[in-house]
Structures are given as structure tokens and as C-alpha cells.
Amino acid sequence: MLQDKDIPVLDDERLSEETASNARDDATGASEARTLTSQINELIEDVRVLARAETEYYRTKLSVNLAATKRVLLLFGVAVVTGIMAIIALILGLLLVLSQHVGPLAATGIIVGLTLLVASVTMGMAIKRAKKLPLDENNS
Fold first, then answer.
1. Mean pLDDT of the chain
2. Which whole-number Å values give the CA distances from 4 to 30, 46, 55, 57, in the listed order?
3. For a 10 Å CB count at each end of the chain, is N or C smaller?
4. What CA–CA distance (Å, rounded) separates 94 from 99?
5. Measured between alpha carbons, how far is 116 from 120 in angstroms, rounded to an integer?
6. From the centroid of its chain, how far is CA 12?
């Protein structure tokens, strides 16, 4: 567990010491009623300790999430590059097959035309969906 040495942690040893000292004070009758200012000071100190602990917790949680996000993005990048390579291999394979039937120049024209058609259709779909996005809070 990550732990900052400046942040006091209530562990079993400290808890048992406090419990033992409280029991001694109660047994001897030496415990006096704490004043309001001492209780407020203890409360402020407890809030500071809690704030430090919460800050450290969220800092650790964020660093773990950032590391996981970096791994996911790396895997996504590898998948995209591999997918592009597969599409290029498919296009080259289609080009080789078509060049035997219609000739190399016509096969190149067919493949380029089909690729541009797929690109323009997907671009049109992306633009249509982008226009529907509520980007400006004043317009919605």
C-alpha cells in the first residue's frame, strides 16, 4: 500500500496505546473534561489528516488510471495500424486478381474508385453525425 510518511495512520499499535491511556485516565479519575477549544483543535487536526489522506488516495487512484489508460491507448494504436495493414493487403490482393481479368490499368482504376467511394460515404456519415453533436451549450 502506498503511504505518505507525513500522514499519521491509525494502526493497531497506536490504537491500543490510546485505548490503554484512556483506560488508565478513567481508572485513576485523572481525566478532566476537555474544553471546547481543545475539542475544536482536535477536530481541525482530524479534518487536516483526512484531507491529506483523501488527497493521497485520489492522487494514487489517478496515477493508476493514467497508467491503465496509456496501456489501452497503446493497444488501440497497435490495432489501428494492424487494421490499416490488413486493408492495404486486401486492396493489393484485389488489384492483383482484377489485373488478370481486366488489365492492370483498369484494375487500378476500379480499386481507386471503390476506395474513394467508401471514403466519401464514411466521411458523409461522419459529417452528418458531427452536425448532430451538442457542442455549443447555448444552442441546445
1. 81
2. 35, 16, 11, 10
3. N
4. 8
5. 6
6. 34
Q: Which amino acid is at 112?
A: V
Query: How many residues appear in the chain?
Result: 140
CB 50, CB 10: distance < 8 Å? no
DSSP state of 35: P
Quick one: pLDDT at residue 3? 54
Could you tell me the three cell numbers for 54? 483523501
What percentage of the chain exceeds 70 in pLDDT?
A: 73
**d(Cα 91, Cα 114) in Å, to the nearest integer?**
10
CB of 95 closer than 8 Å to CB of 107: yes
Residue 133 gets which letter from DSSP?
Answer: S
State residue 31's pLDDT score: 43
DSSP class of residue 7 equals S
**What are the φ and ψ backbone dihedral angles of 130, each rounded to 5 degrees?**
-65, -35
The answer, yes or no, to whether residue 112 has pLDDT greater than 80, is yes
pLDDT tens for 9-37 read 555 555 556 555 665 555 444 345 678 88
